[in-house]
Amino acid sequence: MGETKMLVVVLLLVIIFLGIAAFLFYIEKRLQKAEQDIQSMQDTEKKQESTKVNGDEA
Amino acid sequence: MHAIKNNWWKIAGIALVVYVIAGGLLFEVPDLPVLRESIRNIYFHVGMWFGMIFILFMSVVFSLRYLARSRPEDDLRALAAVKVGLLFGLLGLLTGMLWARFTWGDYWVNDPKLNGAAVGMLIYLAYIVLRSSLEDPEKRARLAAVYSVFAFVLFFVFIMILPRTASVSIHPGVDGNPALATGDLAPEMRWVFYPAMLGWFIMSWWLYRLFYRMSRIEIKIREIRENQNNQI
What we know:
The complex is a heterodimer of chains A (about 60) and B (about 230).
Chain A: H1 2-57
Chain B: H1 2-26, H2 42-69, H3 72-103, H4 112-132, H5 137-165, H6 187-231
């Protein structure tokens, strides 16, 4: 009986920890997406600036 | 396949901690007086504390790198490492308090090691306060880097050196390295203890990376907004 209870406790703790780990992976995915978005925004800004400079020079 | 290749060390960290939870609570441990089954807490309390020391050491490395190269990324890295260090320190304190309750009869006893740990945590909390009190980013980063180096040295003095010089301490490890010395840990416990160290190290490193990336994104978004406002 005692051993079964211990197994349930271990299982519960493992499930909680795996939940935390899954949440960390989820955050990581969101961060990756945010990083990509920012990168593409910065690239567009740079392109716009260079076109503006070229336009001014012309 | 690509995801596994990139995340293998995180998966390894998760597997190690799962093994530590299961092994730590189910495997055989020596039946010692007073400690009894609470000895299993060593895999969590000491593991998290070591994870904290590791990541705080990394914050010193980043701080020194900032002082040498003045790159803002290093300052952000140091801050992220301190945040994770504080989190692990808090978890270490909580697990330690629980352990103390079952072995010493109270959550907190007046012991140089415990008091030193609390003061050490406060020193690192002051690091966060110091940062938020300075407006100029460059000045903040430089001051924080210098403070971080001194904070680590002081932290070490408070948790390792001062308790050893005190004549009375009931916390283990006053005359050696707790859990690492040959006679401190039963051989069967080493099968869980060493993986626990590695597992908590990996978890602290993973969290540090997430904190760092979050703060970097926050700064980039602020820069983009400032640029847009300037254009308007």
